[in-house]
Amino acid sequence: MSSALPISNRQQLLRETRDYLLIALGMIMYAVGWTVFLLPNNLPSGAVPGIASVVYWATGFPVQYTYLLINFALLLLALKILGLKFCLKTIFAVGVLTFATPVFQHFVKGSLINDQPFMACVLGASFCGGGIGVAFSANGSTGGTDIIAAIVNKYRDITLGRVILICDVIIISSSYLVLHDWEKVVYGYVVLFISSFVLDQVVNSARQSVQFFIISQKYEEIGQRINKDLHRGVTFIDGVGCYTHNNVKMMFVLAKKRESNTIFRLIKDIDPNAFVSQSAVIGVFGEGFDKIKVK
Questions:
Q1: Among 126, 237, 238, 295, which residue's beta carbon has the most beta carbons within 10 A?
Q2: Distance (Å, rounded) from C-alpha 239 to C-alpha 134?
Q3: What residue ranges do the domains of the chain occupy?
Q4: What is each CA distance from 28 to 33, 34, 100, 102, 170, in whole angstroms?
Q5: HSE of 243 in the Cβ direction (CA atoms, 13 Å)?
Q6: Residue 147, SS3?
Q7: Phi first, then psi: what are they for 210, rounded to 5°?
Q8: Distances from the Cα of 156 to the Cαs of 150, 181, 195, 242, 274, in angstroms?
Q9: Domain at 209-280: CATH code
């Protein structure tokens, strides 16, 4: 009797492993942007790291401990609204960032860019925004205002970057109470704009949708696997081949772009001779996709 996991279970395990690896990558990117470029140059940032930075500049209290304590309270809220699965990945993300922050502070003494605050601002914001975007694309979060953004995005048609931008303007502005330098505050606003823009680009690219037309004699098996493994609907369409005049079944499937490789592998495993057409779509609205946006 084989001890190997069923294909669906293996795919689920690989998908979860991939998510956690992407979240770890995103947190490492964020740690680089925050501790290597922003914090040493006294450039304020948003979210809980922004609060931790202000506390650090005012008291010298390590940023990772402030970040951890605030996120602990916010995670209790997320647990109730967003569910255990989201919280597990968020806890993992918070843990990785909490560990990575002092590591980069220890090995990278000061900043890699000195006396060039704008360049440090651009690079730091790009790393931070990209890191948050990678984490969100893997159904994770860095915690803090990301949790608030995820909650609002769940119920309202507002982009993640916009929610974070609104929340963090107050945090950036409050840094003046410690830094007493409006130039630094302005740089903080630039950090917010760039990180929000990069975040939206990363997340939206991961949410692009595609449509498939699949013709195969094993349409029942392929359709059931797509239903079970990807939780995507499959529509069977009756057709007639022009050359052979044989009756054929054509499957119509809508999925996220990131799921394309999984669908192709699934089809290849079942019927390598299947005919498959894939095309990008501008928008998909309904259950499992975006909500219908009508004002």
A1: 126
A2: 41
A3: 7-206, 209-280
A4: 9, 10, 7, 12, 26
A5: 0
A6: helix
A7: -135, 160
A8: 10, 36, 21, 47, 40
A9: 3.30.70.120
Q: Is the dihedral of CA 58, 62, 64, 66 positive or negative?
A: negative
Tokens 């010298």 correspond to what residue? Answer: 60
Contact 41, 125 (CB under 8 A): no
**Terminal alpha carbon distance of the chain:** 58
List per-residue pLDDT tens for the chain, 295 residues long.
444 555 567 777 887 888 899 999 999 999 999 888 888 888 888 778 888 888 888 888 888 888 888 888 778 777 777 667 667 888 888 889 889 988 888 887 766 777 788 888 999 999 998 998 888 877 777 777 767 776 676 666 666 667 767 777 888 888 888 888 888 889 988 988 898 888 888 877 766 788 999 999 899 999 999 988 888 889 899 988 888 888 888 999 988 877 888 889 889 889 989 999 988 876 666 666 666 554 4
Check: CB of residue 48 under 8 Å from CB of residue 71: yes
pTM to 2 decimal places: 0.67
